[in-house]
Automatic annotation (TrEMBL):
Pfam families: DEAD, Helicase_C, HTH_61, POLQ_helical. One of its GO terms (molecular function) is ATP binding. Keywords: ATP-binding, Helicase, Hydrolase, Nucleotide-binding. CDD domains: DEXHc_POLQ-like (cd18026), SF2_C_Ski2 (cd18795). This is Helicase POLQ-like isoform X2. Residues 240-257 have a biased composition (Polar residues). Residues 532-724 form the Helicase C-terminal domain. It catalyses: ATP + H2O = ADP + phosphate + H(+). Residues 345-517 form the Helicase ATP-binding domain. Residues 223-260 are annotated as: Disordered. The gene is HELQ. The lineage of its organism: Eukaryota, Metazoa, Chordata, Craniata, Vertebrata.
Length: 1067
């Protein structure tokens, strides 16, 4: 075994002689034949000239054989040659080849093909030899023979990539053709390249040879060293030409069908032309073997699951590559015992629905990921993962994109304005949809409508306890109820750290339940005096991390500053350079702006974290905290339910969230951040309280978790009415009895005895359907089945369909329709203000309290066209002026319209300036609020677009809203939008990448993470790898969609007249 690669041995067989020996090395035609015509003499003198320059060469026609599955492993057989006669062939790679579309131009005046060449000599001797009478009778064999003397040695080197295999000719072929084995020993002489794209030529030639009835060589095992074999050495990128030996003697016979034969010159010219034109594919034998192994393991695992056998695959029915990826990407080498138990539960093996509950940091997500991978790779079904927040969706997208690239599935984001409805239908690769609660509901609706719900094999719900929280809980319940009702093959997995009345959820989801109190460390609760906060913090930082939860956003900032005042100057020296980089990066993403509080606290390794920060700022601070540059966060309770930011010590500054006393599940989530699994080995939680709160705190830490109750009826327009509208729109249930039956199967139906006191479920169902009918969203048809029996059927109206397709809150659907209708009468398109107003979210209007002086100042700066928009909406400058000066107003103006226009001014300024800092200062709003407004507007704009697509009268809005939605989603200059499509790339990072030359998705997908780290400031290795993986995933997704579109266009339509006729005839 050489260092450069393995040796392989090949047997090259040449046909045995079936004619008398020619007796000499050269095949010399007779004098009579040479003098057949005077017109040929000049040509033959040139040929003689060539022969003198090719002394010692036996030219033969070459029949190439493909000896390996790898197109690079090729054998080109031929006679002994003088190495000086062969020129080095130009290749696609490394030879400076320039593409030329003309074959004639490529070989035009290049004399090596006509003079002083082995090929020319071969052709001349070949022509003369074929004219010998004694040979014409053998012209039926297409073969080459070379009988070597004892000292002839040929050396062949081939360029494989990856693993090598031992290959031989088939005995059957050997016997039939009368082939004789010839041993070719290694020598050392001239080296020349053969490009891997040569494979195209040999494949074509092989097909041609098959037509002639040739027997081709096949792979077989090496059996005996006593046989004479071809011993081939395989150094990288070389083929060594056969070596000349003066003492050798050879006998040559060339025979073929003259009508079908092609000369060696034509073959090689054609091959080189093809090589020059073709792109050089990169063939990797090792990659092929790995893919084959992965495919075999997936098939084995698939059979295992189908047979419900306990004999699992290498890694819980998954390929061993999955285990390697977890070690490589996440550092997980071994599962906890409870995780192993959960994954091997009988209910999981039988694909039953499952709810499992563990404390925060117990490792729930890993179990869900393994189950999702089983579904994607083994069962070959799509998977939906529902997460509570956009930030968590993006974090999970980044984390799983690498798995998708390596294992061959797509990871698609459904959050904010992102997501396609219905999703792209894929025939080969499967998709993992990662969605927020709202987008998950829309996705399920679209799958039901298109009859594809059965393609969804698994639905995973994180934070299942949110089913009892407000309108989002109602939407989550509707989603799960529809899946249960419409698909019997879709498995549902629910997980949460905080569940109490799990029996109700079990009954609703028809699920098994698994729980464990496992934590990788123990919790501690200490009651300390508030004055010792600094002392508690300094026991941990800067070597370990600490989280201090505060009741309000303002309190977060105050506590951060207070702690820094008492910290020693020594803390300034800890990772000083890295902290300076964080400050500079914050300035860059804020276009030179930096929060004064952060400017004072970051040098100490301290920062605040709440919704007042922009997405860019939050992401940068979280990364700095994760890498240990920042060691202390003062934060609000939202961090506990958000991204994974663990700590050695968690301190609760007070048992309050804003003005409300802490709930049990909130408390458990906060202290669950202490000592997260795989990151820290110890976790401590400390609650600071006052005497007056002592009794409530004792109850808080000892009482059981809060119960979880359905919100389907309490959230009237977003709950039960929306559910009924979609049931009828999707034709899941269209009459009163079917709808009532469906309701009994919901979580609300399970809890109806507890939740319903005054009215029955039947009465609530009838009232809700009557309300939808009166609102013009449904129409009722009465069918008399008999004199006594009457059935009420419902069908959805156009407005109703538009509302449920656009997922518009039914409280606003008629207002939206009226605003859009009014907009058609005088839509102002000189600026984006009018369209922006129409896409400003209604639910944010009630929270808006305009600063009237700012409002008046902005109003007075409007152009005439923009003032015309305000006039159309009924808002005058005099009204705003009077409000700003505090004067009484007699004329009645719609307050909601005024407030909505103010918010649209904020959004309009953002679209023009694309700088959140500037806009937040201009309108005196927290920059976090401005960004939330922008995110909400982008999402609502997407909803309005889907609403308009269902109503023909609003056709004019469709193209306009597509562009506006894109502008609101990214709110950056147009050149940065392709980069921001990649998960994890926000505006600040997109500017850095663009400046460094990465200007498109293709650039990022082909980037080297190590080069990115050196090129882009403040980019960690983990971030660089995630960006590249996400870009590759997005690029593959787009390429696959285009490829499937092409195949769909080229496929014969199923309703093609001839096809229909033929199928009818067969029937």
């Amino acid at each position: 075994m050489d260092e450069g690669g393995s040796r392989i041995r090949r047997r090259v067989s040449l046909p045995k002689r079936k004619r008398p020996s020619l007796g000499c090395i050269f095949v010399v035609p007779t004098a009579a034949e040479l003098e057949r015509g005077d017109e040929k003499k000049e040509e033959e003198m040139v040929a003689e000239n060539r022969r003198r320059k090719t002394a010692g060469v036996i030219p033969v026609e070459v029949q190439p054989y493909l000896l390996s599955d790898s197109p690079d492993c090729l054998f080109l057989g031929g006679g002994d040659t003088n190495p000086d006669l062969l020129r080095r062939m130009p290749t696609d790679r490394g030879m400076g080849y320039q593409h030329n579309d003309s074959e004639e131009d490529m070989f035009g005046d290049y004399d090596s093909f006509t003079e002083n060449s082995f090929i020319a000599a071969a052709e001349d001797l070949e022509q003369k030899y074929m004219q010998l009478p004694e040979l014409r009778k053998h012209a039926t064999d297409f073969a080459t023979e070379n009988v070597c003397s004892e000292s002839i040695k040929n050396k062949l080197s081939v360029t494989p990539i990856g693993n090598f295999t031992e290959l031989q000719t088939d005995k059957h072929t050997e016997n039939q053709s009368g082939y004789e084995d010839v041993t070719v020993e290694p020598g050392a002489d001239l080296l020349y390249d053969v490009p891997s794209s040569q494979a195209m030529y040999f494949e074509n030639l092989q097909n041609s040879s098959n037509d002639l009835g040739d027997q081709f060589m096949k792979e077989r095992a090496w059996k005996s060293s006593s046989h004479n074999t071809v011993n081939e050495e395989l150094p990288h990128n070389y083929i060594e030409q056969p070596q000349q030996n003066d003492e050798s003697s050879s006998k040559v016979r060339t025979s073929s069908d003259m009508n079908r034969r092609t000369s060696i010159k034509d073959h090689l010219k054609s091959a080189m032309t093809g090589n020059a034109k073709a792109q050089t594919p990169v063939f990797s034998r090792s990659k092929q073997l790995k893919e084959t192994l992965l495919s075999e393991e997936i098939n084995v695992a698939k059979k295992t699951i189908e047979s419900s056998s306990n004999d699992l695959g290498p890694f819980y029915s998954l390929p061993s590559k999955v285990r390697d990826l977890y070690v490589q990407l996440k550092g997980i080498e071994k599962l906890y015992e409870w995780q192993h138990t959960c994954l091997t539960l009988k209910s999981v093996q039988e694909r039953k629905n499952l709810i499992y509950s563990l404390p925060t940091s117990g490792g729930k997500t890993l179990v869900a990921e393994i189950l999702m991978l089983q579904e994607l790779l083994c069962s070959r079904k799509d998977v939906l993962m529902i997460l509570p927040y956009v930030a968590i969706v993006q974090e999970k997208i980044s984390g799983l994109s690498s798995f998708g690239i390596e294992l061959g599935f797509f990871v698609e984001e459904y959050a904010g304005s992102k997501g396609r409805f219905p999703p792209t239908k894929r025939r080969e690769k499967k998709s993992l949809y990662i969605a927020t609660i709202e987008k998950g509901h829309s996705l399920v609706n679209s799958l039901i409508e298109t009859g594809r719900i059965d393609s969804l094999g698994l639905v995973v719900v994180d934070e299942l306890h949110m089913i009892g929280e407000g309108s989002r809980g109602a939407i989550l319940e509707m989603t799960l109820a529809k899946i249960l009702y419409t698909s019997k093959t879709t498995q549902i997995i629910g997980m949460s750290a905080t569940l109490n009345n799990v029996e109700d959820l079990q009954k609703f989801l028809q699920a098994e339940y698994y729980t464990s109190q496992f934590r990788p460390y123990s919790d501690t609760l200490k009651k300390m005096d508030p004055d010792h906060l600094v002392a508690l913090v300094t026991e941990v930082i800067p070597n370990y991390s600490c989280l201090v939860f505060c009741p309000s956003k303002k309190n977060c900032e105050n506590v951060a500053e207070m702690i820094c005042k008492f910290l020693s100057k020594e803390y300034l020296k800890h990772k000083e350079k890295e902290k300076c980089e964080v400050i500079n990066n914050l300035k860059n993403i804020g276009n030179g702006n930096l929060c004064p509080v952060l400017k004072r606290t970051i040098p100490f390794g301290v920062a605040y974290h709440h919704s007042g920060l922009t997405s860019d700022e939050r992401k940068l601070l979280e990364e700095a905290y994760s890498t240990g540059v920042l060691c202390l966060f003062t934060c609000t309770s939202t961090l506990a339910a958000g991204v994974n930011l663990p700590a050695r010590r968690v301190i609760l500054r007070a048992p309050y969230v804003a003005m409300e006393f802490l709930k049990r599940n909130q408390y458990k989530q906060m202290i669950g951040r202490a000592g997260r699994a795989g990151i820290d080995t110890i976790g401590e939680s400390i609650l600071i309280l006052q005497e007056k709160d002592k009794q409530q705190v004792l109850e808080l830490i000892t009482r059981p978790l809060e119960n979880c109750y359905s919100r389907l009826v309490q959230e009237f327009t977003k709950g039960i009415q929306t559910l009924f509208l979609s049931l009828i729109g999707l034709k899941i249930a269209t009459n009163l009895d079917d709808i009532y039956c469906f309701m009994n199967g919901t979580f609300f139906g399970v809890q109806q005895k507890i939740l319903l006191k005054e009215k029955s479920l039947w009465e609530i169902t009838v009232e809700s359907l009557r309300y939808l009918t009166e609102k013009g969203l449904l129409q009722k048809d009465t069918i008399c089945k008999s004199e006594e029996e009457v059935q009420h059927n419902f069908h959805i109206t156009q407005l109703g369909r538009a509302s449920f397709k656009g997922t518009i809150d039914l409280a606003y659907c008629d207002i939206l329709y009226r605003d859009l209708k009014k907009g058609l009468e005088g839509l102002v398109l000189e600026s984006l203000l009018h369209l922006t107003y129409l896409t400003t979210p209604y639910d944010l209007v009630s929270q808006c309290n305009p600063d009237w002086m700012i409002y008046f100042r902005q109003f007075s700066q409007l152009s005439p066209a923009e003032q015309n928009v305000a006039a159309i909406l009924g808002v005058s400058e005099s009204f705003i002026g009077k409000k700003a000066s505090g004067q009484a107003i007699r004329k009645k103006v719609d307050k909601d319209v005024v407030n909505r226009l103010y918010l649209s001014f904020v959004l309009y300024s953002l679209l023009k300036e694309t700088n959140i800092w500037t806009v937040s200062e201009k309108f005196n709003m927290p920059r976090g609020y401005v960004q939330n407004l922008l995110t909400g507007a982008a999402s609502f704009s997407s909803c309005v677009l889907h609403f308009c697509e269902e109503l023909e009268e609003f056709w004019v809005y469709r193209a306009l809203l597509v562009e506006l939605t894109k502008k609101l989603t990214y709110c950056v200059k147009a050149e940065l939008i392709p980069l921001m499509e990649v998960t994890g790339v926000l505006e600040g990072r997109a500017k850095q990448l663009y400046s460094a030359g990465y200007k498109s998705l293709m650039h990022l997908a082909n980037a080297n993470p190590e080069v990115l780290i050196r090129t882009i400031d403040h980019l960690s290795r983990r971030q660089a790898k995630q960006i590249v993986s996400s870009a590759k995933m997005l690029l593959h997704e787009k390429a696959e969609a285009l490829q499937e579109e092409v195949e769909e266009l080229l496929r014969l339509p199923s309703d093609f007249p001839g096809v229909v006729a033929s199928s009818t005839d067969k029937a």
